[in-house]
Amino acid sequence: MSEIPSLNARKVVRALKRAGFVEDRQRGSHLVLIHPVSRVRTVVPVHAGRTIKTPLLRSIIREANLSVEEFLDLL
Predict the structure, then answer these.
(1) Residue 2's pLDDT is what?
(2) How far from chain centre, in Å, is Cα 52?
(3) Taking the alpha carbons of 63, 38, 8, 2 in that order, is the dihedral positive or negative?
(4) CA–CA distance, 59 with 37 (Å, rounded to integer)
């Protein structure tokens, strides 16, 4: 299994958009992204200057129905 680096929210959102996700809504610091075809939804916390740690990033990748390798290819 590939090692996942800690990433900032901007990079995570950009990778998810490359996978076909679009911004649905944002409430406070939580951005909700949805895939228009499969209707899969994931939430990314957007906090300026902070990184998303590996366990939360794994959870986001799992919610998006992507493998770690697919996600890393989208970065």
Answers:
(1) 66
(2) 10
(3) positive
(4) 21
Residue 13 has pLDDT above 60, yes or no: yes
What mean pLDDT comes out for the span 27-38?
A: 96
Written as six digits, the tokens of 51 are 């990184």
Q: What CATH number is attached to the domain comprising 18?
A: 3.30.920.30
Does the model's pTM come out above 0.90? yes
Q: Is residue 2 part of a domain?
A: no
Total domains, the chain:
1
Confidence check: pLDDT of 41 > 70: yes
> Whole-angstrom Cα distance, residue 34 to residue 63?
10
Tell me which residue range forms the domain holding 52: 7-74
What distance in Å separates the CA atoms of residue 3 and residue 27, rounded to the nearest whole number? 30
